[in-house]
Every structure is written in C-alpha cells, then in structure tokens.
Amino acid sequence: METKISQRQYAAMLGVSNTAIGKAIKAHYINKGFDKQSRKIVVSIANEEWGNQMVERKKTLLERNRKPLGSVSGNCGGLALPSDGSAANGLILAFRKMVDELQSLPTKCIDKIICSNNRDAAFDILSSEISHVIQHLGRMSTNSER
C-alpha cells in the first residue's frame, strides 16, 4: 500500500510551503501523486513527479549561495591585525570553522525539525543545535589557547 499524507505534511517533508504544493497540484506537476478522492499526496509518485526535483533545486541553490571566504588582512571589523599575519591566520581559521559549523546545522537537524509537532518544537530543536555549536566552538578556542 502506498503512503498517503496531507499536503501540509508533504510540504514540511520537502521544506516548501503548503502553497507551493497547492500550486504544483493545480499546474499538474503533481498529477498521479495526488489522490483526488482522499485529497492526499501519494508520496512515492509525487516525489517522482515533482518532489525530487524540488529537493535537488533547493540543494543547488544552497550550494550556489554558499560564499567562499576571502583573505583577511589589515583591518577586520575595526580590529587592527598584526602585519605578520599570525593573528590574521588564526582568526581566519576560527572564522572558517565557525562558518562550516553553522552551515552544517540544516543538514544536522532538518529531519528532527520536519518531524516536530509544531513551530515551538522546531524552534527548540534549532536553538539547541545552535547552542551545541557555540559550546563546541568555545571548547575548541579554550583548548587552542592552552
């Protein structure tokens, strides 16, 4: 038996709005994957028709928007850096690590967020993950100072 879920559940699963799912149904991007009698989404068919493309498109946009870090020299946010580059190199490494950790958050917690019952639960999950990253980075900086 095929798994059928509501439009809202399918939207949450893909990380898109319920409106996007409604528009995809109206435009017949999701055709066989929508059971008109029960008004439910047949996940496997809808994914083949439309969902897999949306997931790939979102991944592509995420990668495209991920900006590479440039070099830091001279002045960083009003902080004068030594010209020998020692502090700058340490700052660049710490900043890159922070960026990598923060950019990995969606991958780490998306499944938990999708399965959460409500917005408050999703917020708590994301807040907890951010807190873990900050604590991890804090431990790293403390260890590197020793």
Describe this structure in words.
With 146 residues, the chain is mostly helical. The chain is built from six helices and five strands, in the order βααββαββααα. Helix content is 66%, strand content 8%. Strands 1-3-2 form a three-stranded antiparallel β-sheet. A hairpin with a 4-residue loop joins strand 2 and strand 3 (40-42). Helix 1 packs across helix 2 (18-26), helix 4 (86-103) packs antiparallel against helix 6 and helix 5 packs antiparallel against helix 6. The radius of gyration is 22 Å and the shape is elongated.
Any descriptors?
146 residues; mainly alpha; 3-stranded antiparallel sheet
The biggest beta sheet reads: 3 strands, antiparallel
Principal-axis shape: elongated
Number of strands: 5
- Distance separating the two termini: 59 Å
Instruction: Count the DSSP helices.
Output: 6
Q: Regions with pLDDT < 50 over 5+ consecutive residues?
A: 69-81
- Percent strand equals 5-15%
Quick check: average pLDDT?
A: 77
Question: How much helix, percentage-wise, in residues?
Answer: 55-70%
What's the helix-strand series?
EHHEEHEEHHH
From the alpha carbons, calculate the radius of gyration and give it in angstroms.
22 Å
Structural class call reads: mainly alpha
Number of domains: 2
Strand order of the largest sheet: 1-3-2
